[in-house]
Design a protein that fits this description.
about 220 residues; mainly alpha; 8 helices; about 0% strand
Length: about 220
């Protein structure tokens, strides 16, 4: 078998998988679009004033030694599960000798999970056009063969498939790029909010917490 024939057979074998992957990529990017709309909806009303209010309430609860109520207050400004966990860690890890390192690690984990969430659409930014290009080039070879044989119907069908996959791949890449840009800003804001809360609650002296709890228990 000639190497040209072998490569032709490989390309033909990839035709159906490429078409299936292009459809899956289109479905995934539509799902991610819906998820982005939900994320934007959850972040309605976010702002520094809301953060300051939550920090003030959590500060008051912590001054009384009520860490549970402080956690519940901070959960109201958590826009995702990972963000809520990071905010909880700011409260639960306070008072430890290595609290700064523990809180920093929780915030780093929060940042890693945000990056992993971004990877879904960042991959599609590249994968969409790549699948579109492959889906375009693979049908062109049999289309040219059909043209040489005078088979107009097969030529038309192959060209329709080629151009349709191209459009789908470019659409996937375009939508995924937009989603990635918006999420990059949202997650950067989330991380900034967590840092702001951590800095705000750092003003609560841990020693006063222990003294308040001891006085309350003695009564």
């Amino acid at each position: 078998m000639k190497i040209e024939s072998f490569l032709f057979e490989v390309a033909e074998a990839l035709r159906i998988p490429v078409l299936v992957l292009a459809l899956l990529a289109l479905a995934v990017v539509l799902i991610e679009t819906g998820a982005l709309i939900a994320e934007l909806h959850r972040r309605r009303g976010r702002g520094v004033a809301r953060l300051d209010q939550a920090i003030e309430h959590a500060h008051r609860y912590l001054s009384y030694g009520d860490s549970v109520s402080a956690q519940r207050t901070l959960q109201t400004i958590g826009h995702s599960e990972s963000m809520t966990e990071a905010l909880d860690a700011i409260v639960t890890q306070r008072g430890r000798a290595d609290s700064r390192d523990r809180i920093a690690k929780r915030m780093a984990e929060f940042d890693y999970r945000s990056l992993r969430r971004l990877e879904r659409t960042r991959i599609l930014v590249r994968m969409g056009p790549a699948l579109g290009l492959m889906g375009t080039l693979i049908p062109l070879s049999p289309a040219l063969a059909a043209l040489a044989d005078g088979d107009v119907k097969r030529l038309t069908d192959d060209l329709r498939v080629a151009f349709s996959v191209t459009v789908a791949g470019l659409l996937v890449g375009m939508i995924a790029f937009g989603i990635s840009l918006v999420r990059d800003r949202l997650y950067a804001q989330d991380y900034s909010d967590v840092e702001y809360v951590a800095a705000g609650l750092a003003r609560v002296p841990v020693a006063s917490l222990h003294s308040t709890v001891v006085e309350t228990a003695s009564r």
